[in-house]
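Table S2 (text version). Query chain:
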Amino acid sequence: MSPTHTHHKPQPIRQTLSLIRRHALVLLSMGTALQFLVSGLGAGLLVYLFRLALIAADQTNLDKNNISHLLANPIRM
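Corresponding structure-token output:
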């Protein structure tokens, strides 16, 4: 009979940390790019939704005269 060899498998956590260390710059740059993309799309979406809310409230713009009207009657929006 051949002797049994116990091979230690590399632990997944150590593999993951090693991968992160080796590719830190790539991961950081991709994360930053994705964050800017999501932030840009989110800001555009918020602008669109705000304009849609103004249209639904029959307001062309928001100023000091009609802000109290919009805040006092949110159901109308």
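Notes on Table S2: The chain has one domain: 13-72. The longest helix spans residues 24-56.
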